[in-house]
Amino acid sequence: MIFITGDTHGGIDMKKLASSNFAAGKNLTKDDYVIICGDFGCIWNGSREEAWLLKWYEDKPWTTLFVDGNHENFDMLYDFPVEEWNGGKVHKINGSVLHLLRGQVFSLDGVKFFTFGGAMSTDKIFRREHISWWPQEIPNREEEEEAILNLAKHNFAVDYIVTHTAPTAIVEYLNRFDRLRDPTSGMLDKFVPILQFKHWYFGHFHTNRQIHDQYTCLYNDIIRLI
After folding, report:
1. Is 206 left (phi over 0), alpha (psi -120 to 50) or beta?
2. Which stretches make up the Calcineurin-like phosphoesterase domain (predicted)?
3. Which one of 72, 158, 159, 185 has the fewest beta carbons within 10 angstroms of its own beta carbon?
4. CA dist list (Å): 60 to 104, 106, 130, 201
């Protein structure tokens, strides 16, 4: 089985995955997956609390997958070695937690997922570079080009897209005009006309909302995909 949900922000919003709120999780195995749409937030400062949080995920019966958001320590995250996993590149955080890199196509239970994390922090003027925000939060040209190459291998057709933020038209639909300056949305715009997909899931906006037929913003809702 595969489930998907929104931002967890370290320990702040992870309670949705506790057994009391996610009863289905008790019956899962390590061959089942829970995907987090960015702002995982458990790779931040290497604290004792953070180690406890990662152990909490490792002890869960399922395997946790996440795309990066804008609230991640990218210096620490990118120190993990890159590995190949189910058709795409990952950072293996521990035995049960994997970071799905940008621009990858993964095959999980015969279903194709395209991943492209990242987003701009609108509050970065109040943060310190490489302390509480990181310039790597914005995808670069190489990641965009790798995405195109990987998608071409799959004839630009996937089942699901998982990102942190959303294309510009969807951001406008959510009336989040403060986020329209995000170059990540501009990159995602390029994928919209060339990709065939069933559904696009994203987080970032701290709401649970379906937009049109093919887009869903997730925060605390947990949706079963398979």
Report:
1. left
2. 2-207
3. 159
4. 25, 22, 31, 23
220 token code pair: 């605390």
Q: What pLDDT does 176 receive? A: 74
pLDDT attached to residue 205 = 96
Neighbours of 160 (CB within 10 A): 21
pLDDT digits (tens, 9 = 90+) for 31-66: 999 999 999 999 999 999 999 999 999 999 999 999
Q: Are 156 and 194 in contact (CB under 8 A)?
A: yes
Copy the structure tokens of residue 196.
């065939």
Considering the segment(s) 2-224 as one domain, its CATH architecture is 4-Layer Sandwich (3.60)
Question: Residue 178 pLDDT more than 80?
Answer: no
Domain ranges for the chain: 2-224
SS (HEC) of 54-114: HHHHHHCCCEEEECCCCCCCHHHHCCCCEEEECCEEEEEEECCEEEECCCEEEEECCEEEE
Cα 94–139–150 angle (5° rounding)? 75
Euclidean distance between the first and final Cα of the chain, in Å?
Answer: 5
Token pair belonging to 36? 């987090």
